[in-house]
Design a protein that fits this description.
By secondary structure, the chain is mostly helical. It contains 7 helices and no strands.
Length: 166
């Protein structure tokens, strides 16, 4: 809202935080450089690109381009369905999940376990994801029922009236 009102600008933010950003870059860099001075850097073990996941080049490319396509299709989804963009992302995630299951359906369970979306979801904090999805759904509901617009208009009238009296 501050951005829309013109009270905050990109250049203003960059000017305000530039010095702090430089300090936050240089201080940890100097400490790390001092602590690691003279130590030999050991590179991590090299993992061969490709066959270690047990999937073909086609499967990797299919999942990659479907993921990118899902992100690109979100504006189209919103335009066609008039639903909030996060619903398009969730729909795309479902399509991606289904595609992954179909592509890897003939593999042994142990071989495809690390390739599934369910395995990736185990590694994230689901309570946080559900919390944010709940907030997004609540705001979308308020917007769809026009309560959000009415509240914004009421606040605009009320706040504008108070500032004009001052």
């Amino acid at each position: 809202m501050l951005w829309i009102g013109g009270q905050v600008s990109t250049l203003g933010i960059m000017k305000a935080v530039f010095l702090a950003s430089i300090v936050n870059l240089l201080v940890p860099l100097a400490i790390t450089g001092h602590l690691l001075r003279g130590r030999q850097v050991v590179p991590p073990e090299r993992i061969e690109n490709g066959d270690s996941c047990g999937c073909t080049r086609f499967e990797r490319n299919l999942m990659f381009f479907m993921g990118i396509g899902t992100l690109v299709a979100v504006p189209v989804f919103k335009t066609v369905t008039h639903l909030p963009p996060f619903m398009g992302i969730l729909f795309g995630l479902g399509i991606l999940w289904l595609t992954g299951e179909l592509v890897h359906r003939n593999k042994v369970d142990e071989e495809k376990e690390h390739l599934t979306l369910a395995r990736a979801l185990v590694r994230i904090d689901m309570s946080t994801v559900v919390f944010f999805i709940g907030i997004l759904l609540a705001v979308a509901t308020l917007e769809h029922s026009r309560i959000l617009a009415a509240l914004a208009a009421r606040l605009d009238q009320t706040v504008a009236a108070r500032t004009s009296l001052s």
